Amino acid sequence: MSPGAASELRADPYKVWLSEIMLQQTTVATVTGYFGDFVARWPDVEALAAAPLDDVLHAWQGLGYYARARNLHKCAQVVAVEHGGRFPDTEAELLTLPGIGPYTAAAIAAIAFGRSATPIDGNIERIVARLYQIETPLPGAKPEIKAQAEALTPKNRAGDFAQALMDLGATLCRPKRPACDVCPLAKGCAAGKAGTAEAYPRRKPKAARPDRFGVVYWLTRADGAVMVRRRPESGLLGGMMEFPSTPWEGASPSDADVAGHAPLAADWRALPGEVTHVFTHFRLVLRVVTARAPTEKAGGNAQWCRPADFGDLALPTVMKKIARHAMDQARVAGEVG
């Protein structure tokens, strides 16, 4: 670290990194409680690196985008093992770490190490687009916004400057009803002067969110335990626990598909109703079929878990919905108390 960077050290790099990863695609109000819990449980990067992945995934429940949690854990291990528990202090080095992209690298470099770096989040993107009345719709406008933002970034106290812009975007330069009358940048804001601030940044019309369909298998054994399994590490909800299901595809599974993907041959019957869950890029519609297991052997990566212990599993929200639906239907049918 250069002497200049050292003199401008602003915050614990671990906490800056953790907060920035949590804040990706999540609001400050949502993150606040999670951040406090994480820091209390894992106060430094070595502690997080030593934690079992299941514990991290379980603590992450509710923040969504679980690939972030897996990369968070991987990154902590790399920093602990390959960097002696100290985060690199340059954007280039930070970019080599799992789960750290250009924005997060710039944010850590600027805020934690005082580097002249330009993190561009949604707030800064919106401010710059309005200041210069950039007509190109996002995401095509990103290079122009980045160039203009970098031109604004001071050589000294870049972290303070970035955080000031983030706060400005969160409090005054809001997406809707921006407070242009009290904005300190109003005199130099092209869109503000034109009275068109809400129109920026320009965006392309959103594509319709497609539907995907699947069937989930609610398989119970005599003592009431339910079969669960771990999803593959890569892909959507990677590494999380789930109730077995068919693939989630663009058409509802046929009877043959339902039989072919069943975890065990059993007398499957359909439960009334559906469970829907909205992901960023698609809406998922799931039907549930249930059966009593003919054997207590789970097989493969499956295991049995009593409903009372579901809270100990890293179950994503969509699977919690499935559990509530299946248990509610069982109560209606008089199968549980």
Q: Overview of this structure, please?
A:
The chain has 337 residues and is of the alpha+beta class. It has 14 helices and 7 strands. The protein has helices at 3-7, 13-23, 28-41, 45-50, 53-60, 67-82, 91-94, 102-113, 122-131, 142-152, 158-171, 190-194, 255-261, 317-332, and strands spanning 211-220, 226-230, 241-242, 269-270, 275-278, 283-292, 302-305. Strands 1, 4, 5 and 6 form a 4-stranded mixed sheet that branches. Strands 3-2-7 form a 3-stranded antiparallel sheet, with no helix packed on it. Strand 5 (275-278) and strand 6 (283-292) form a beta hairpin. Helix 2 crosses helix 3, helix 2 packs antiparallel against helix 8 (102-113) and helix 9 (122-131) crosses helix 10. The longest helix is centred in the first third of the chain and has 16 residues, at 67-82. The relative contact order is 0.10. Mean pLDDT is 91; it is low at 1-9.
